[in-house]
Amino acid sequence: MENPTKALIFDVDGTLSETEELHRKAFNLAFKEKKIDWHWDFKLYKKLLNISGGKERIDYFQEIISTDKKVLVQKDIDKIHQRKTFLYNSWVKEGLLKLRPGIRKIVNMAKKKEIILAISTSTSFENVVSLIKSCFDESPEKLFHFISTGELVSRKKPYPDLYELVLKNISAKPSECFAFEDSRIGLLSSKAAQIPTIVSPSIYNLNDDFSEADFVLGSFNYNCLPLDLKNSLSS
Ligand code: XBP
Ligand code: MG
User: Fold this and answer.
1) Mutate to test the pocket of ligand 1, among 9, 23, 29 (most ligand atoms within 8 A of CB)
2) Ligand 1 centroid vs 63 CA: distance in angstroms?
3) For a tag site, which of 34, 67, 72, 102 has the least CB within 10 Å?
4) Are 131 and 13 a contacting pair, CB within 8 Å?
């Protein structure tokens, strides 16, 4: 039988790994170091995750949520975010994050079947590289055919741009792929690009509305995967 799945496209934060608690910790430490009196707790950060991209998230918090006087200009936001990125990456390099259950097996099986692997994420290339180097034995470029990251588009998720960039670079039709997502805005992005999407919610997204998803799973464990995909991975 001809292999019907040409490519698997993975979101990063919340999908490859439960990264968001480490992002949150890095934001909070960066605020503290810069003497900014903000602390994002779990409940608040859950709300802020509806804004993809760290700089956009800081800006949104200042503009919409915080009742403090607006003091940060874009240059300040850039500096805070640079420090947050440094902190996050230093912890990732220390090995504080691991892959979500099932991800390694899917990646290994897809590699054996020569199914194309790609990434679609709102976060930065730097963050993706540290996570992949820390969690997989192979270099990001060897493992993933194309890595679509926030710097490459002007509209992040929930817009389709990050996924459309992947499709263009791997020369695949949406129907030949599966996207893997963990959040509602991620799902809206992959579905706006018309890609069949498998969702397994991360800790921040357990109660999101996933009604547009093709499959909603409790985990990415092989046994939970849709039959079509299992066939492609194993036949
Ligand atoms: C989720 C995000 C990211 C991270 C922070 O991305 O919104 O913005 O929380 O990343 P994904 P930066 O598409 O992988 O789920 O601070 O590097 O922007
Ligand atoms: Mg995500």
Assistant:
1) 23
2) 19
3) 67
4) no
CA of 124 to the centre of ligand 1 (A): 8
Q: Which ligand 1 atom is nearest residue 183's CA?
A: 15
Q: Which residues are within 8 A (CB) of 118 and not within 5 positions of it... i.e. 6 or more apart?
A: 7, 8, 9, 10, 144, 145, 146, 147, 148, 166, 169, 170
Whole-angstrom distance, CA of residue 29 vs CA of residue 139: 29
Q: What is the pLDDT of residues 34-49, one digit of tens each?
A: 999 999 999 999 999 9
Cβ(87)–Cβ(29) below 8 Å: yes
Q: Are 196 and 162 in contact (CB under 8 A)?
A: no
Structure-block tokens of residue 150: 């926030």
pTM for this prediction:
0.96
Q: How many helices (H) and strands (E) does the chain have?
A: 10, 6
| Positions in the chain short of pLDDT 70 | 1-3
Q: pLDDT for 133-179, tens place per residue?
A: 999 978 999 999 999 999 999 999 999 999 999 999 999 999 999 99
Active site residues: 11, 13
Structure tokens at 100: 């979500």
d(CA 190, CA 165): 11
* Burial of 141 from C-beta contacts in 10 A (0-12 / 13-18 / 19+): exposed
Query: Measuring CA to CA, which residue among 172, 234, 178 is closest to residue 15?
Result: 178
